Amino acid sequence: MVMREIAISMFKATCPAVLEDVRKTRRPIRVTKRGKPVVEVVPPPPEIRLKNGKRVLGGMRGRMEIVGDIVGPICPFEWPTKEPAKRARRK
Question: Hey, which of 15, 28, 51, 72 would disulfide with 42, CB 3.0 to 4.6 Å?
């Protein structure tokens, strides 16, 4: 199959429509500038799902509970900090 090509000026003018076309047809498009390839717009991979039909990303949503402060420090004392190194002066 030959990859479809579109000039960068046309891509710029019709970008949302081109992206939607790639998503719907699942066929990539090569964007060219003065006949030379600049970028290839490819469709995203299909969403991966588990055997039970749930999505992998966000699969643990609702299964955990946050207990306590997740932002505050876990140590009861302040960690020592170093002062930034002083730069040598040029003469």
Answer: 28
Q: 7-64 pLDDT, tens per residue?
A: 999 999 999 999 999 999 999 999 999 999 999 999 987 776 667 776 677 767 778 8
Q: Which parts of 1-89 fold into alpha helices (H)?
A: 8-25
pLDDT at 50: 67
Q: Has this prediction a pTM greater than 0.70?
A: no
Residue with tokens 């299909």: 46
Helix (H, G, I), strand (E, B) or coil at 10: helix
Q: Measure the N-to-C terminal CA separation of the chain; round to a whole number of Å.
A: 66
Among residues 16, 11, 18, the alpha carbon closest in space to that of 32 is found at 11
Judge whether 28 and 3 are in contact, CB under 8 Å: yes
- Indicate the domain borders of the chain: 4-41
CA 21 to chain CA centroid, Å, is 20
